[in-house]
Design brief:
Blueprint lengths: L1 H27 L5 H5 L2 H29 L1
Helix pairs in contact: 1-3
Length: 70
């Protein structure tokens, strides 16, 4: 499961980067619309959840190993 979350997080970061580039190009070409602006929000929200999971994972593992030992 952890490997799948890490891989998803990496692909989401690529999708977010592409969405930001698309936003920049749209602004530069003066073709910016609301949906283009919202394009980056979905990968960003998913990145938040996968990133928080990956951030907390070592602490959960440490807490679990302490609990087993004592």
């Amino acid at each position: 499961m952890n490997k799948w979350i890490r891989q998803t997080h990496r692909w989401l970061s690529i999708a977010f980067t592409l969405a930001v580039i698309i936003n920049g190009v749209a602004v530069g070409l003066k073709k910016y619309t609301a949906w283009v602006g919202l394009l980056a929000l979905l990968p960003l929200a998913l990145l938040l959840f996968t990133g928080l999971y990956l951030f907390v994972l070592p602490y959960i593992a440490k807490w679990g190993s302490r609990r087993r030992m004592g």
